[in-house]
Structures are given as structure tokens and as C-alpha cells.
Amino acid sequence: MKTDLTDTTSSKINKALVLGRRAIGTPAVGMVLTLVIVTDEENAYDALKAANEASREHPSRTLVVIKRVSRTPRDRAQARLDAEVRLGADASTGETVVLRLYGEVVDHAQSVVLPLLLPDAPVVVWWPVNAPSDPANDPLGALAQRRVTDTYAAEQPIQELTARADAYTPGDTDLSWTRITPWRSMLAAALDQVACEVTSAEVEGEEFNPSVELLAMWLADRLKVPVRRSKSGGPGLTSVRMETNAGPIVLDRPDGSLATLSIQGQPDRAVALKRRDTAELIAEELRRLDPDDTYATALRFGLERLDEEAATTAPATVVDTVVETVVEDVVETVEEKAPAPKPAPKKAPAKKAAAK
């Protein structure tokens, strides 16, 4: 069941939800949380599809906030809120409200969303793209217990990961961290099978993949050993190798689907380690709504390591300036000490021919 509301208010949207539940014969509210998706028109369809699939495991009221950018001052003066209410089969097992904000309403999205939140239920805000630099201090993020971002969707994922570490607040999480949950579980289980001491590790994956960086941070933080980061053609994470005093432990996944676990003294084992889609990642994040302390520790460790490297490494611009200055001084000194060239000898004037 779909209901379109043009130039509406939050009160009218709530009334449409009540009438819609009565029309389909489910007057009671059976949702366990409110999921707020903040996105643009281009990515709204994929995000809502993932949320609907995740709602089969976590029935929720999904609020999709689409901020329409005003192109002219006249458009900005025309503040308007349009809504699309979906219930029943059109909203999977929950309720869906698609909110399109125009004009000045864009700057007050929290005032539109607040009356639509389920009472006495947790709130999760998810930014599939264009997440704010500080999610906890964002007006919509301040309404939530959990704030989900995805650094992999950023233009510069590694720089975005550093910003996430700098502005971390309990309740923040990242889908790039969720993607490595099977890897962390498999590596921990492998170490439980062998009584050994890890001396070093190596993580191999795509060059600008934040999940690879997060896994390396987690290993370095937990094992207290140096972790080498190497590049591969992907897809995503491709291999983890841990050197131990009992032999190497290798988890290799070259095709993004099936991995091979190799432990010294044991036969190789095939492990299902496929790359998961967004719906599975969101469903996992909705299973626990308390702060993820392991993620916070790995982020802080990575930020401290980056700060140490920046403090011990001279900026390239300074080095280049010093080199250029030294070269210029040497050139000037050589030119001053070089002997002046001797003037060329003058030619004698030609004799006049004898008169006849």
C-alpha cells in the first residue's frame, strides 16, 4: 500500500501511517527500532532495498531522508515537504516513509524526523554516502544511539578513515569494519587451534580499501606485533599471513568467494568467505546497538600510529626546498670561481691593393 503526500507535515504523515495500518488489518505497531537513512536521490533506491531486506530480520520503521538541493534562491524560498508512505507488501515487514525536503526545510531535517520516531525504541542513522565529518554532532546523528557510515563510499577512503578516528564517539560504526567480521572470526579461530606466539603479520588487499587498513590496525593492536600492508588487485581483502614460532598461518582468498586456511602441520581447508552485500552488513549492525569497543580501540591505535609516522617523517615540500637551495648555491659558487674567458685576438686590417 502506497500513499503520496505533497506539501505535507509530520502530523499528516503520522495520520497516514495509522490509517494505512488499519486498512491492511495490522493496527498494532510491531517494529523494534527506527532506521533513518540520509541519502540523495541517486542512491536512495539501493539503500532502501538493502534496508527492506534487513527488516526481515529486524522489523523497523524506515525513514528515508532525501535532501533536494535548491539551485536558485527562488527554489530555496519555496520550503516544502513531500512524503511517500509505504505499508504492507511495499515495505517488506516494516513501515517505510520516504521524505523529500525542499528549500529551508533541508536545514531542519531533524524537526521533520523527530515526530516520526517510534516511541521508546532505539534509533539508528545510516549515511550510505556523503556522511558528515562528525556524525555524533550532526542534527540527525544526535537523535540516534548508533550512527553507521561507510568510508568505502568516500572519494578518499583512507583520509576519511582518519577523520572517523579523529571524531569518534561511542555509537559510531563503519560498514568497512563490518565487512571484516568473518576475517576476524576466522583468524581468531585459527590461533585458538595452535599454541604459538605470533611474531609478525602481513595483510594483502586493494590499495585504497579501508577494510584492509582496519584489519591491519586490529591485528597490530591485538597481537602487539608489526603488521605489513601489501597491495594486490583485489577484490577487497585477498590474504592474511601470520608468522609464528610454530610456522606460518595463512588465510588466502584470491577470488572474493572461497578462501583457503593453511596452518603448519595441518591439511589445507577450504573456507566460505564470500563478499557480503549491503543488506547483510546492515542486518549485522542492527543486531547490536551498544558501542563497539573493539572498533574504537582499532581506530585509536591506527590514529596514534599515523601521528607517530607524521612526527618522524619530514614533509616532502621542505626537503625539496632545501635541495633546490643547496643546488643553487653550488651553481653560483662554481660560476664565481670559474676563470673569465680570454678575449678573442683581433684580426689585422687588410692592406690596400697597389694602385695601377
UniProtKB/TrEMBL annotation:
Domain Glucose-6-phosphate dehydrogenase assembly protein OpcA C-terminal: 170-299
This protein's name: Glucose-6-phosphate dehydrogenase assembly protein OpcA
Chain positions covered by the region annotation Disordered: 333-356
Domain of life from the UniProt record: Bacteria
Residue ranges constituting the Glucose-6-phosphate dehydrogenase assembly protein OpcA N-terminal domain according to the UniProt record: 51-165
Residue stretches of biased makeup (Basic residues): 344-356
InterPro entries noted in UniProt: G6PDH_assembly_OpcA, OpcA_G6PD_C, OpcA_G6PD_N
